[in-house]
Amino acid sequence: MATAAIVGGGSFGTAMACAARRAGLGVKLWAREPEIVESINAGRGNPVFLSSVPLEPGIEASSDIGETVRAADFVLMAVPSQFLRGIALKMRDALRPGTAVVSCSKGIERGSCALMPEVIAEVLPHAAVAVLAGPSFAKEVALGLMTGVTLASSDLALAEQLAKTLSSANFHVYASDDPISATIGGAFK
């Protein structure tokens, strides 16, 4: 079973953990808040974000970012854009070269005006970078409602592989080779 590391225990990271479990993946979720880690591991859900949504069973949470990403087949970065650079720096030494890192963060970095995949490529030059974007809402994704998103990478084969891996009955992921447009569309959302 492939393993997805979800970096970010907020509403969208938690929702993507649910989507990844529904796709049949092993899921490790990193959260900085100890109460979120404890609650998810106890099977009580995310008490801070999406408190009313039951989570898919089998999601493992950790406050150790290195442990979370070290053995992952790919990483979904679902942290607020203003924190993405710092968190990527914290995981840099644990990330295996060539591991796909998918930006789920919407926005443009303050100060540099860099797009999120540009930040990831700069901080994690040994990673394969992709972007997940689309008209989605965390609560709907977490509940398993019908959702369609785009996964884009300049490496279309990588985008297709990740799209197939993350897709499930109600979570449709479409591959694209245009990460810039997907990123800009997400930033304007």
Any chance you could write out the topology, listing elements then pairs?
Blueprint: E1 3-7, H1 11-22, E2 26-30, H2 34-41, E3 59-62, H3 65-70, E4 74-77, H4 81-91, E5 100-103, H5 116-123, E6 128-133, H6 138-143, E7 147-152, H7 156-166, E8 171-176, H8 179-188
Parallel strand pairs: 1-2, 1-4, 2-3, 4-5, 5-6, 7-8
Antiparallel strand pairs: 6-7
Helix pairs in contact: 4-5
Distance between the termini: 33 Å
Number of helices: 8
Outline type: globular
Q: Report the uncertain regions.
A: none
User: Structural class given helices, strands, pairing?
Assistant: alpha/beta
The SSE string, one letter per element, is EHEHEHEHEHEHEHEH
Beta-strand segment tally = 8
How much beta, percentage-wise? 15-25%
Largest sheet: 8 strands, mixed
How are the strands of the largest sheet arranged?
Answer: 3-2-1-4-5-6-7-8
Mean pLDDT: 93
Radius of gyration: 15 Å
Task: Please characterize this protein's 3D structure.
- The chain has helices at 11-22, 34-41, 65-70, 81-91, 116-123, 138-143, 156-166, 179-188; strands at residues 3-7, 26-30, 59-62, 74-77, 100-103, 128-133, 147-152, 171-176.
- It has 189 residues and is α/β, with parallel strands linked by helices.
- The protein is globular and about 40 Å long.
- The N and C termini lie far apart (33 Å).
Task: Sum this structure up briefly.
With 189 residues, the protein is an alpha/beta fold. Helix content is 38%, strand content 21%.
